[in-house]
Amino acid sequence: MSDPFFHPVSGFDLPRFAGVPTFMRLPHVDLDHPRLSEVQIGLIGVPWDSGTTNRPGPRHGPRQLRDASTMIRAQNGATGVRPFERVNCADLGDVPPNPADLLDSMERITGFYNRVMAAGITPLTAGGDHLSSLPILRALAKNAPLGMIHFDSHTDLFHSYFNGTKYTHGTPFRRAVEEGLLDPKRVIQIGIRGTTYDMEDRDFAASVGIRIVPIEEFFARGVEDVMREAREIVGTEATYVSYDIDFVDPAFAPGTGTPEVGGPTAFQALQVARLLGGVNIIGADLVEVSPPFDASGNTAFLGMSILFEMLCVMSTPREG
Amino acid sequence: MSDPFFHPVSGFDLPRFAGVPTFMRLPHVDLDHPRLSEVQIGLIGVPWDSGTTNRPGPRHGPRQLRDASTMIRAQNGATGVRPFERVNCADLGDVPPNPADLLDSMERITGFYNRVMAAGITPLTAGGDHLSSLPILRALAKNAPLGMIHFDSHTDLFHSYFNGTKYTHGTPFRRAVEEGLLDPKRVIQIGIRGTTYDMEDRDFAASVGIRIVPIEEFFARGVEDVMREAREIVGTEATYVSYDIDFVDPAFAPGTGTPEVGGPTAFQALQVARLLGGVNIIGADLVEVSPPFDASGNTAFLGMSILFEMLCVMSTPREG
Amino acid sequence: MSDPFFHPVSGFDLPRFAGVPTFMRLPHVDLDHPRLSEVQIGLIGVPWDSGTTNRPGPRHGPRQLRDASTMIRAQNGATGVRPFERVNCADLGDVPPNPADLLDSMERITGFYNRVMAAGITPLTAGGDHLSSLPILRALAKNAPLGMIHFDSHTDLFHSYFNGTKYTHGTPFRRAVEEGLLDPKRVIQIGIRGTTYDMEDRDFAASVGIRIVPIEEFFARGVEDVMREAREIVGTEATYVSYDIDFVDPAFAPGTGTPEVGGPTAFQALQVARLLGGVNIIGADLVEVSPPFDASGNTAFLGMSILFEMLCVMSTPREG
Amino acid sequence: MSDPFFHPVSGFDLPRFAGVPTFMRLPHVDLDHPRLSEVQIGLIGVPWDSGTTNRPGPRHGPRQLRDASTMIRAQNGATGVRPFERVNCADLGDVPPNPADLLDSMERITGFYNRVMAAGITPLTAGGDHLSSLPILRALAKNAPLGMIHFDSHTDLFHSYFNGTKYTHGTPFRRAVEEGLLDPKRVIQIGIRGTTYDMEDRDFAASVGIRIVPIEEFFARGVEDVMREAREIVGTEATYVSYDIDFVDPAFAPGTGTPEVGGPTAFQALQVARLLGGVNIIGADLVEVSPPFDASGNTAFLGMSILFEMLCVMSTPREG
Amino acid sequence: MSDPFFHPVSGFDLPRFAGVPTFMRLPHVDLDHPRLSEVQIGLIGVPWDSGTTNRPGPRHGPRQLRDASTMIRAQNGATGVRPFERVNCADLGDVPPNPADLLDSMERITGFYNRVMAAGITPLTAGGDHLSSLPILRALAKNAPLGMIHFDSHTDLFHSYFNGTKYTHGTPFRRAVEEGLLDPKRVIQIGIRGTTYDMEDRDFAASVGIRIVPIEEFFARGVEDVMREAREIVGTEATYVSYDIDFVDPAFAPGTGTPEVGGPTAFQALQVARLLGGVNIIGADLVEVSPPFDASGNTAFLGMSILFEMLCVMSTPREG
Amino acid sequence: MSDPFFHPVSGFDLPRFAGVPTFMRLPHVDLDHPRLSEVQIGLIGVPWDSGTTNRPGPRHGPRQLRDASTMIRAQNGATGVRPFERVNCADLGDVPPNPADLLDSMERITGFYNRVMAAGITPLTAGGDHLSSLPILRALAKNAPLGMIHFDSHTDLFHSYFNGTKYTHGTPFRRAVEEGLLDPKRVIQIGIRGTTYDMEDRDFAASVGIRIVPIEEFFARGVEDVMREAREIVGTEATYVSYDIDFVDPAFAPGTGTPEVGGPTAFQALQVARLLGGVNIIGADLVEVSPPFDASGNTAFLGMSILFEMLCVMSTPREG
């Protein structure tokens, strides 16, 4: 049973549109807070988008996600899980990026997550563009390569952009494999679609053993079957979950920078998160929410609902 | 065959963007109009949202729904029904609410519907937030409790909010059961989903016999099967239909105050309304359209299409 | 193998948000350009909406479609086709319409396409409202009536509007059949739905042998089955493809003037285009994108993705 | 003192967001209404934009202006005038245009206004694009050419567009002078600005004696001085007032099709209307409100405030 | 010199789009915080709009104002004042309203401000609709009636609405005078404009000695002269400042529920706040920011800039 | 007299919404074009925003500015200048930036402008964030420091951000002075306002002799007087003009990343550009248009109108 200090404010006490918006109305426990060590799952914002090669905006993601998150109530309607009663959750604040220096920002992110890991906290991240996952993985995969379940419309496995630039939101997992942060044989990418420059990313995936599930296969096989395979691929060892909001069809999630039409529905977007049950998740992220392209906040609300589903899974003890 | 006075203006005579916008381009017949008694189905606006606990706006619903309704043509493309030729339909105008006095507004609404019932008119309501249904039911269920088919993402069965407040858009059907306006054994709620505060609403439902179909069951069983059960539950006796636009996924209906992601498509939203055929509908509503959150009017157009489907069913003689 | 002159600019060389936006970043080859005769497939804009009876705006379609098209990369992710390497493609610019003279504009459009046909170019058109298809067909169907696969929520087969007006976006294919431009027995219309004025259009379709697939049938049978029938109906002879963006559900394509709720998803919208493989397409269009009703450009991006799918099919040699 | 039948609904009785939206909440008295002959000033919508050479949308103007007009209360705060108590005002509905036939629409408009004039009603028009003024003037200036005070950023005096097209929203007053509907020596155009094709319009103005006040002169001299000259130019004889919303700076009135930056403020926009006092106004219009470019309705609210100011002046007995 | 604990986070340390958004990036010090008694000026949100008679939304004001406030830097560019170094400022959080019970909410607000006053804190409020000012004044004017400088387009002095309702956002200052919270002879209302129901509010003002400066007089005399009079009227005794964002022209502040066209510019909006220097301000508010009508946040940013100007004045020692 | 090849397409030949959108409908002459050397004034896009410390988006500026620029006609309505007849103007395309490598992008920009200068072309730039001006100045100020007239709400003179980062959009002119690209005694900055971090930028300005005109002084003295001083400060020697769209009040130009309320009107924004007459302009830019924050394109239209005013001045022979 979690400590009441870590319980979110109820909408029956303070209407959901009121109050200083922390993630899911949890207490704001920054890295210098006296109760930091009691936190079990920490929600962290990475307000950064310097890796974006197309439309920018994810630097504003954490702010809008916090705002939308005050709509999240205490209990999962589908599964009945009440995560905030099971584990101590808190809003750890945002990593302070340097918007004008990409490499400095990457160091700042890794440094922040090093401290989180040192405190024994499992991080649940609200991005930020997808390059954010790389400096996070550098902190999380210190001991051994991780498995990864990756929801996205893009592989983000390209070698480089713009005549040799190696760090963009289209390359993080190429780097992560190269750096030994991911075990490619325990990586699955689900929902891939859209036009492509060439086959360079998929050739790399094939060469190292990354499993790609294109959207056509996803729709043909169905959510349950694909997720069963995903769980098998990552097995029982430590696994990262990276969820790009552009996995979802842009009708449901227009607020992103590089949308690809023809994706899953919001219902399926929640289902795949729920079906992570049993996976040994040592960290997860939801990235690429770009508020300037959806001022309504609906994309952020979907993103936050996905984060909540992941949190419910992460707060549930695994069997065996 | 209906009287030509009650036929809507055709888009071939006056383009659909032109003219004073009444509901479905029907004549405006207010409660003092000499031809009131000839009306069989009356469309009524309830521009009121004082029961809203989250984002307001449904007070603007009837205006935008009227505007969108001029896109509705004379014939149902799917079923071939031409409702305006079958029954005399009219726009009865709006109930005059008191935006700064919740209880006074409830009395005004009940009073308005008392007059509508006295004139022998079947009301088809464009809300307004969901609390609107309660004062309407007070006028409609004078003699005996009604059955209800309720489409929504929320049960609206909570006991109270904010330390004891009994009248909000989250409580109308708790009150309706308590007041004997609904027969809980003839009530079915379809599409329920999203996070919840606790199980207090569902425990109540279980205790009085209200049938809840969560969205997961809805998708698993399919529209036809769920609606077959719904028709069985309400049987042949008098039934109210209450349709909250947030039943539909917010990608299709973003203009609402408390959206829950992961709902049915617009096609399914129309299907469930069509499958009301045979139900003894003595009144129906479409509520929670909130124009400030969808200035495009697309949500209102969907809402009006649902109202038109319900009107087609209501204008069709039941068998036997 | 196509000439490098006709290859689009890569997003790795020039970011996709940069540069003068031609269709799919192809060279702008106007009708007086020295290399016109080398073009095999020409993308053409018809910035015109004088046939619109409801909400205007498709005159702005080509501009927004060009803008969105810079998001299209070189390769089809689903089929692997790289159309720009197979055939010489170019942006032929826009037909200059006369926004204040409907008949003059129709002559200008036919004149433009006459020149395109004379140059031996297969036209792929970005509209424009649906009346645009009529003057295009006048240029394409000079020798014999064409077959047509038509995706739409409306039949566009009405006789006339507003007391006798024969040229509107609701009548082009009635005229095309009357003028002998289409062989009605080789015409199929897919996705028809929404309310209707009356049955005049469908009665005409039945009388001349046009096949209509209502949306209910489309969903019941599935994409593959319907498209198999479509390919059978048009056979191996010359066929036009006309794709109204309002075929797609407005959640996915809000930027159009006469939306009808309850349509296919974006994924299905792409699927039907892919399943045109094997059809003898001598021209195609994507019409009714109306930017004022979707400033985000998401509708245009879907429209352009559909055009790209059609281009991929058109660039692929047919068997036999 | 006006008849209570013609008084608008008060916001104290029915909140301003409620009810069927007629112009200024006045009774809807169509041309066949039994009390038509009692109307003194009639508000009329012209939902038409076929003369638009640039961005379309004014066909939706009357609908949005009616919606915004329910914000207008009974009394002018600046002048104290209560127009609805002085004269019988009513909403006469919309002229039914033919969106696909420009010349037919012009005849329909003139026919409608002929009936209005025959009933002895002074028309106050909500457009529509600026070509609307021409068919209106044809009905109003039957006996003698009128004077005109014209607020606009464009002269609308061009000879023709697109290789000879004579009827567009850039030509109405060229035609009106040619047809003897306006006395050019009693015409003043105020607020002219922006880039121009050439000097053809201004050369014409100079040649026939139309007075043009460019925006630079307007700002330099001030509102009072310019309006004093305007009143002198039109004198005491019958005068038409034509007010294009693009007279106002687009920061205040973005919802128009051909904005020109650098115009007057909303306060000045109201002032010039107030300073029409004493002019012998036999008709007036407010045109070019284009809702697709300002879904918020703020432009329409300004437009309606201007119409109200003109109504106040028109309802006030002139001295002498 | 203020305590560093109370200094806002600098944009040089944490980019302005990052972090949990408190007002002006100040520490969140709720009423139970151990350092509450050190706060000198407390920013408070009142997320409540039950008094709104027209378009709702100000309940969302505090959230959006907090978000926009992270754009405020440490120093006033015009006056050089650095308020956060002069006095201890903090974000005291939001009053918890009851959205479905108007009278209960008023009591909650007064109760909250009683605690603020008891702690010796000067409150600076971000509304909320204008009815919020009444329960605040009940806490602030316990000992003697206050003077008030009131910026608004409406007097908010009406007796009642909707057949006798006494508490709406159009009546707070009528009530405040009746209850002895304001000394009407020390009250000035600046910027009044727009249409009115009748003269009931102005007759009341005249009868009790409230000074009204209509917008026409404001523009004619200029900002300095009007504000000189305002300072004279309130004198050196305790004064409340109430600033309705609809004082400003809706081109600059569209995000409000009852806009009136023809108001001051943003520059003038800041000037009047700066010219409060020397006034004995014991509390101030900025109300009626309605985010649903300006999702861009621009209105909120202007509102926050006004609050910052007032804070600068309030943090500056008065002479003598 | 310019060559007809360099004349823009007329809106009378091709409606302004039609055609591939180049800047002002000029021919697209890239740096490899055979007629490059004939160009006298070249419009160039810099689609880049890596220097942005706050809200991103200016990378999309050139695209939207091109789109808006098709509204620009051939003649300046205020001054009568017809620039395209005086000098050969062309769209030189966009500099290809590297969105993920700030320093590489700066080199690419300088390289591009080196080629432009080598071709003898005067560059007129559409940004891009304000850091763009630095690499441009590096190409333009090779021989001697330039004077500069700078319109902005910010000085952009800060030393560094985020713990030492020297290249951001808040630092370009600090660098330019340090690098000897600007002669600070011939630099004037007009319109400065808003809150500030501290006085570091202004202290630097004072120490090197840069003249700052705060907005309060600008309004007090008036446009003519300020611009007379500006012309005196830069004198007759080579001068750069840098125009940040956030100089203008955000009511007129909301589409920018770091707006400051309380600025000039659009009319004044044009006036200051016109009053550059006589200045020896060797290059100019208009920066910080951020389309994601104004999808309407109104900000871009104002930006383009300012660029047109500057073009008119630049195309006019200076006296003496």
TrEMBL record, chains A, B, C, D, E, F:
Keywords from the named record: Hydrolase, Metal-binding
One Pfam family of this chain: Arginase
Keyword Aminoacyl-tRNA synthetase among UniProt keywords: no
Membrane-spanning intervals of the chain: none
Protein family (similarity comment): Belongs to the arginase family. Agmatinase subfamily.
Alphabetized PANTHER family for the sequence: ARGINASE/AGMATINASE, GUANIDINO ACID HYDROLASE, MITOCHONDRIAL
Protein name, per record: Guanidinopropionase
Recorded name of the encoding gene: gpuA
